[in-house]
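input
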Amino acid sequence: MSNEPSIAAPRPPLFANTWAIFKRELYQYFVSPIAYFVAFVMLLIAGLLFGTYLRIWVNNQLPADSTAVISYVAFLTVFMAPLLTMRLLAEENREGTIELLLTLPIRDVDIVLGKFLGAWAFYTVVIAVTLVYEFILTSVGQPDQGAAIAGYLGIWLYGGAALAIGLMFSAITENQIVAGFLSLAMLVILFLIDAFSMSVQSAGAQTMLRELSLSSHYYRSFSQGIIRVQDLLFYIFIIAGALFITTQLVGSRRWR
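output
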């Protein structure tokens, strides 16, 4: 028997396997009936809203609002994000494939980031379909292109934050339904906390609650055609924080 010490295999570079996991997850969305159902319902509601607004704008000769329809998507995302993320890690936990992934030379951050980017990419595709409304508006008037850019940037970041939160809850449990319910509950709270702040007497408490709200950072700036650095940083910090916690949750399974 050789007494030579074994040499551990070198760990792969950071993000080396993110692309492979990203492609796998994105493919899963495009073959998933649930993902198609979620996209269909969201686009159907957005289309009905756009048709209603378009008739009002044309019949009353009113200027078109580029952010009118996309602003409703912020509310729809509260329900869309849990459905898109509930299976990502909960299914891996239930079937035991997460343990298999952890035995491979793959970093925890690669697993989490790959799955998150796959969900965000699918969300981006769905949102991009609604850009057809902007082309229609240009044929009936002169919509504010700057407001449209701000609105779409905001809803894209808003969706990224919602998906990151959903992924975090998917890492907690082995049950997809539980993961979806927990992330939905959290997103509803973060959406409604801005409205709840109105009933608070303390001005300081109102400001604090508004700063914690996902919706306030969108409706008070991006949906009005304003891009503020603090709102950009808020969504970036939410995404980064949720992904960091998820990475720690995934890594904790190595010691079970």
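quick obs: The chain has one domain: 33-255.
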